[in-house]
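Question (not urgent): is this output format expected?
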Amino acid sequence: MTPKELNSLLLTAVREKVPKETNVANVLMDILSIGKEAIYRRFQGEVPFTFSEVFIISKKFDISLDKLLGLYVTERTLFDLNLSHFSNPVEMYCSTIDQYIHTFRKINPDEYHEVWDASNRISLLFYMKYEHLLKFHLFKWLYHRNMIYNNQEKIFYDRILLPKKLIEKQKEFLHVLNAHQHISIIWDKNVVESLVNDISYFIEIDLIPEEEIRKIKKELFQFINDIEISSATGKYNAGIDIQLYISNIQFNTSYLYMDSPSKKSVLSKSMS
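Got this back:
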């Protein structure tokens, strides 16, 4: 049984629980706090529902997962079980950056090696240079995990502050990154459009004030300008050799691959 078939089973169970005239996509967007693009990728079976998403859906609609999946035998991974065990969201976020740092440090920068970043979204490799884009990335990450509520009250974007620990991790990551002089990037063709759609979604639900929108917009234009320069010069972030490719097909997920004579590492990037 394919992941697409498993997604279909869950969606069928949801449709049985709601009135026929109800738009299931809109319902799940509200329940899971994800955008239209993300929910339709799950509808089409391109991306599996994560374990936490399945839990939220099954709890909301009183769907028995035993009944839904117990009759099927499969060796496939049913859902993404990349769960973090931290009560503090900053600790969770920093732990993911630590994964990047640890992966990069596995490779000796003095020996020949290759670093490939294949992404369906703009990764931390680029966010780190831009304060407001990084802040938006953190805000979206918290929102998707239902962590921007304080006593049931929503916390708006302008109330999110980048913690000192996160800034220190950011500097550490950039320092480690700068030791690697050759990086190749492959981007999903919709990578910038997806970011713009994410920003637009939070503007539409009135979580980003006008002044903050201007700051994000300014940095987004700066980011696009920097990427254009990097594409033309083959250089990024004060001397790193970079090759940037745009894929003609969409990626289902994102990976960081590092290869050297002594080490090979692959990191599946879960931050969205």
